[in-house]
Amino acid sequence: MDDEYYMKQALREAQKAFDADEVPIGAVIVMKNTIIARGYNQVETLTDSTAHAEILSLTSAFNYLGSKYLPEATIYVTIEPCAMCCGALYWSKIGKIVYGAADEKHGGIAKVKLHPKTTIVSNICANDCMALMQNFFRKKR
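Now predict its structure.
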């Protein structure tokens, strides 16, 4: 299993958000080739502006492991994490961040300091990730 496989799993989560009329961003967290957490945007559903896919999947992973740090884990997220999510990823000490499409308007990867040991990979299934976002916002207009 490779980055593309796990990004497609994150896209499944993003589709759940799309179906719930949420901004379609999904995330999965992987350790030792096993998905340990999943999440998708639930800002509207939970009436919580912090209920981003990354935050929800981090909370799930922390609970699953009984740990507040994830240095051995990789998060796959369909759209570049925002500054808030980058901050949470920094504090989690996550080992690797893999994202699909860049978010020039809200993306935080270049704007926020990440943990020095965190590896970043971008542009994985970017066209599929961006298409889901574009379809969502086209439907809204």
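The helical segments are 3-19, 43-46, 53-65, 83-92, 126-140.
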